[in-house]
Specification:
Layout (H helix, E strand, L loop, with lengths): L2 H28 L2 H32 L5 H14 L3 H25 L3 H6 L4 E5 L14 E5 L8 E4 L9 E11 L1 H4 L5 E3 L4 E2 L4 E11 L7 H14 L3 H32 L12 H11 L3 H4 L3 H12 L2 E3 L3 H7 L1 E6 L1 H5 L5 E9 L18 H13 L5 H10 L8 E8 L3 E7 L11 E6 L1 H6 L4 H12 L8 E7 L2 E8 L6 H10 L4 E5 L4 H11 L4 E2 L4 H15 L2 E6 L5 H6 L2 E5 L5 H6 L2 E3 L6 H36 L4 H20 L9 H26 L3
Parallel strand pairs: 9-16, 9-18, 16-17, 18-19, 19-20
Antiparallel strand pairs: 1-2, 1-3, 3-7, 4-5, 4-6, 4-7, 8-20, 10-15, 11-12, 12-13, 13-14, 14-15
Organism: Hibiscus sabdariffa (roselle)
Pfam families: E1-E2_ATPase, Hydrolase
Protein name: P-type ATPase A domain-containing protein
């Protein structure tokens, strides 16, 4: 039975029981006096089993398990009230408690991500195409077989038709379609997918037919990660919730002891009767009121705001690895961004290639006799493309993409050595050279610092750095240096800021009031070019992965508060792990970065960063409000009950009303957050003004001429 049907059936039983209890309470005012008592007993006899049986079974089960919780307290209070002759009050207590519990379950279910709904968006099987001799699909005569989606292998080709869901993360091989990923990332606008575009698993094909190439298995695909992370987030409780869970049981035992003490000691200390009289409420009755009023129902649901906020973020395409991430985000006062692929598009554009050292330049000859034929630029591009073939690094992709379709010398790589975060060294064969024949060439490609570190002398290193500084293209571009047999060529690339980044940085600085900085491995001029474009005033450049890690630790220690690291590459993983909160762009992030990150942004932009911070601050504020509301309701209900001012049914009403208030307050976490109360008030006034204008417009249109 699903939750909706369960809640519906229990609500019907509670409503029936409540109606019978109300009928019993109304008997003295509606029927002749001689028939009041028999009729009341009949109504109570019919109503009590509807709510009493389940309450008794729950209490017995909890006591047998060594637990004393809210269910035990309510059952004890209700049945003690019945034995004292107040069956009507005891029945109303159980009915109202059950209805409040149903409302609590409803609000809790609304706050949670419906993992079942996400799983229903995922197909059980995929139409995998048969391949020809070249391991490509035969598009002229499509033949396919249906296989379970968990068995789909990377490199397979799948047919996706109208109305179907893309089973795993893929790249469009042929065809085009209109797809929606609203249920994955919150992106409402349908997207046009064409050849070469990447599509996340779970995307639904609204119109069109396409053949896609599988990039990831089911376990590694977007939808699978969403389901897995959502289930983990619901299990990972924040610190306050874990503390309240432990505190609740001990607190319930204290309430029972205090209630027994009031019932036993009240007559001796305050001259109360044991059993209620027409003049004074008895100590047992007062003790039952305390047991009901002081039970920790409202406190237990105070952390509901965490689950609600996690759900709200997920609907925006922001996955949090548990409610504890919200506490961490709210404590952070610094945000550090990686540059390439995070603040920028990551898709570098090849701008120019410039020989700077060891080449022939015009009629002037350098200290090296030979030069490349037909030109230095052509040979350098061929060598760089050969070394970067198959790479995923943005610089390498830009070089390879630029070389496609050009008539370049034939170059093959004999040996290869990679230095993470620095560059690579290779031995090349069959390159056309100034001597006219093929020979082995020693080549290195990477940052300026990496190339100069390989120089034989400090003088040569100094001359290369001077040549870079004197480049005719200036220092604003992204640079990579290529050295082939001591001839150095500078490769210029352009990295453009992402659309909307300037607004994100402005929001973080002006509204979130956080310190914003850039941590990048790129050289100083390129880093500052992007920083100036997006409004960042603090930049740390030319950082290796270990340098980023040191900066994250140092800045966190110096500031005395938390630090958020936003990145996406494997070289960001150490810094992401060391930061208070690590945030990655899941669409392009490496598996290592995703594994160590705390927040995954499913949309391919960083607008989720200020939203996450604002949501975290909103949530922590709501949780504090919930605790204050819960304690206030407990005090307002408990103290008058012990003093004898409140009947038991009104005590129950105040107690359960407090629980419902906490639930309703928690549901506010589904709303988009704001940075201040003033902004909330402004938004409210704007909405009221819009509705008033719409009402006037409709009134004028409906008025008779």
């Amino acid at each position: 039975m699903d939750l909706a049907n369960y809640l519906r059936e229990h609500l019907q039983l509670c409503c029936c029981a409540t109606a019978l209890f109300i009928a019993a309470a109304a008997c003295p005012y509606l029927v002749p006096k001689p028939t009041v008592k028999p009729l009341q007993n009949s109504f109570l006899f019919l109503a009590f089993p509807l709510v009493g049986v389940s309450a008794a079974l729950d209490a017995i089960t909890d006591i047998a398990g060594g637990k004393v919780n809210i269910h035990v307290l309510m059952a004890l209070a209700a049945f003690a009230s019945v034995f004292m002759g107040n069956a009507l009050e005891g029945g109303l207590l159980l009915a109202m408690f059950n209805m409040a519990h149903i409302a609590e379950e409803f609000f809790t279910s609304r706050s949670m991500i419906d993992v079942k709904e996400l799983k229903e968006n995922y197909p059980d099987s995929a139409l995998v195409l048969d391949l020809d001799d070249d391991n490509l699909p035969n598009v002229s005569d499509l033949s396919y077989r249906s296989i379970p989606v968990h068995d789909v292998e990377v490199g397979s080709y799948i047919l996706v038709t109208t109305g179907e869901a893309v089973p795993v993360d893929c790249e469009v091989f042929q065809g085009s379609a209109t797809i929606t990923i609203e249920h994955l990332t919150g992106e409402i606008k349908p997207l046009e997918a064409k050849a070469g575009d990447r599509i996340p698993g779970g995307a639904r094909n609204l119109d069109g037919r396409m053949i896609v190439k599988v990039l990831k298995t089911w376990k590694e695909s977007t939808l699978s990660r969403i389901v897995q992370l959502t289930e983990e987030a619901q299990l990972n409780k924040p610190k306050l919730q874990r503390w309240l869970d432990d505190f609740g049981e001990r607190y319930s035992k204290v309430v029972v002891v205090l209630s027994v003490a009031i019932a036993v000691l009240g007559p001796f200390l305050f001259k109360w009767p044991f059993i209620s009289t027409a003049v004074c409420r008895g100590s047992i009755y007062r003790a039952l009121g305390l047991m009901v009023a002081a039970s920790p129902c409202a406190l237990a649901v105070a952390p509901l705001a965490y689950a609600t906020a996690v759900s709200s973020c997920a609907r925006k395409g922001i996955l949090l690895k548990g409610g504890q991430v919200l506490d961490a985000l709210a404590s952070c006062h610094t945000v550090a961004f990686d540059k390439t692929g995070t603040l920028t598009t990551g898709g570098l554009m090849f701008k120019a290639i410039e020989p700077i050292y060891g080449h022939l330049t015009g009629i002037k000859k350098t200290n090296f006799a030979s030069c490349c034929i037909p030109s230095c630029e052509v040979e350098a591009l061929a060598v760089a493309a050969a070394m970067e073939k198959g790479t995923t690094h943005p610089i390498g992709r830009a070089v390879v993409d630029h070389s496609i379709g050009k008539d370049l010398p034939s170059v093959s790589v004999e040996s290869f050595e990679y230095f993470p975060g620095k560059g690579l060294i290779a031995t090349l064969n069959s390159a056309e050279s100034g001597t006219g024949g093929g020979k082995l060439l020693k080549a290195s490609l990477g940052s300026i610092e990496f190339i100069t570190s390989l120089c034989k002398s400090e003088d040569e290193s100094r001359k290369i750095r001077a040549a870079v500084s004197a480049s005719s293209y200036g220092t604003d571009f992204v640079h990579a240096a290529l050295s082939v047999d001591e001839k150095v060529t500078l490769i210029h690339l352009e990295d453009r800021p992402r659309p909307g980044v300037l607004d994100v940085i402005s929001e973080l600085k002006d509204h979130a009031k956080v310190r914003v900085m850039m941590l990048t491995g790129d050289h100083k001029s390129s880093a500052w070019r992007v920083a100036n474009a997006v409004g960042i005033n603090e930049v740390y450049s030319s950082l290796k992965p270990e340098d980023k890690l040191k900066h994250v630790k140092k800045i966190s220690g110096d500031m005395g508060g938390g630090l958020i690291m936003v990145g996406e590459g494997i070289n960001d993983a150490p810094a992401l792990a060391a930061a208070t909160v690590g945030i990655v762009l899941a669409h392009r992030a490496s598996a290592t970065a995703i594994a160590v990150a705390d927040v995954l942004l499913l949309q391919d932009n960083i607008s989720g960063v200020p939203f996450s911070i604002a949501k975290a601050r909103q949530t922590t504020s709501l949780v504090k409000q919930n605790v204050a509301l819960a304690l206030t309701c407990i005090i307002l209900a408990a103290l008058p009950s012990v003093l004898g001012f409140l009947p038991l049914w009104l005590t129950v009403l105040l107690h359960e009303g407090g629980t419902l208030l906490v639930c309703l307050n928690s549901i506010r976490a589904l709303n988009d957050p704001s940075w201040s109360w003033g902004q909330d008030l402004w938004n409210l006034m704007y909405k009221l003004k819009s509705k008033l204008a719409l009402f006037r417009h409709n009134t004028i249109q409906s008025a008779p001429l």
